[in-house]
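User: I'm putting together a small comparison set for a docking exercise, and I want a reference complex before I start. The sequence is below, and the ligand is DAU. Could you produce the 3D structure with the ligand included, as structure tokens?
Assistant: Of course. I'll restate your input first, then give the structure tokens for the complex.
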Amino acid sequence: MKLLVTGGAGFIGSNFVRYFLKTHPASSILNLDKLTYAGNLENLAELHTAPNYRFVRGDIADAALIDQLLEDRFDAIVHFAAETHVDRSIAGAREFVQTNVLGTYTLLDAARRRQVPRFLHVGTDEVYGSMKPGEFANEGSTLEPNSPYAASKAGADLLARSFWQTYRYPVLTTRCSNNYGPYQFPEKLIPLMIANALEGKKLPVYGDGLNERDWIFVEDHCRALDRVLENGRPGEVYNVGYGQPVANLEIIRRLLRLLDRSDELIEYVKDRPGHDRRYALSTDRLRRELGWNPAVDIEEGLKRTVDWYRGHADWMARVRGGEYQAYYEKHYTRRGEFLTEL
Ligand code: NAD
Ligand code: DAU
């Protein structure tokens, strides 16, 4: 398969690119990424000279660029690129609307005109809004996004739906729960808590810490995306999640135990406005139709994650210090070629 991946320099995108090329070595990937603060090419350092991988720096909302890239024929687009952090969307959501809504539209429109045979739109469980205790969202549940981030992702999902309903353009949408694992940007709960704990800093817990998220190890998400890409039904939505919501405090305490640090580092801070209490998904469709099951439970996943961050202190230092943002200029020519001699 020849794939165009958007947002492949981010957390899940980079894990997916690595996973896909490893499990499908005859495939090739063009990674299109704007390299916002969340994009880090170092995440894919081992692939820059691989013959079946290429990187282009660019914006998914740039219609001329997308059209030009699609002159090359791809078997599918896997669309990760997005603004993703809820707190940033609360501070201001213009970029979220621009990238998540307009950017997704730009890609869909070009892909339809160029007849790219498959389009996998990577969505989130946040579009369903907060679930009551015991309640689980299925793919037919009402969309009730509560943050500007979630609303912009819901807008993207609805555009994807409309391209199937109106044009029969073969879009597949996934809605996944909270991911964790290697290469996650340390603004998100788990890597932020690990980084702070390792530096002996306080761990800021929003509200009472009892908000629940259904944490899934990033590799399990990548396997689910692979299944949906290959065998999912066009026009369909697939929920992806581990299936066991856990309170934030429970996650943080487990991390502190793994890191051998005291619970005294926990600091309760002002709650996030509009903070969703609980995300919970039914993933029956994915399990039944595509035979997918998560392989990594929270105990193993957190251990692997902590081990990875411990072993990559230099990566974390460059990210927290901001040096990672110079990686592109340092390692690529102005024409976008990788400088192999460096
Ligand atoms: P991330 O923030 O780590 O990475 C996003 C990537 O997109 C970055 O490399 C960034 O440079 C790139 N990007 C942003 N705007 C762009 C633009 N206009 N054009 C091109 N590239 C652009 O995100 P992530 O956590 O890896 O999430 C990837 C996708 O998965 C997103 O669509 C997100 O909504 C979805 N998702 C994430 C989670 C999660 O827990 N992280 C869960 C479910 C779904
Ligand atoms: O559910 C999928 C979504 O998960 C993705 O679509 C988003 O892109 C991703 O950012 C994530 O959203 P959350 O808001 O759930 O993730 P975050 O890591 O920001 O927060 C997880 C929980 O931890 C949430 O209840 C808020 C809380 N939190 C977060 C931070 C950053 C804290 O208590 N303290 C913190 O410092």
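The pocket of DAU (ligand 2) is lined by residues 84-86, 124-126, 177-178, 188-189, 192, 204-206, 211, 213, 248, 272, 279 (CB under 6 Å). The chain has twelve helices and 13 strands.
User: Thanks, that's exactly what I needed.
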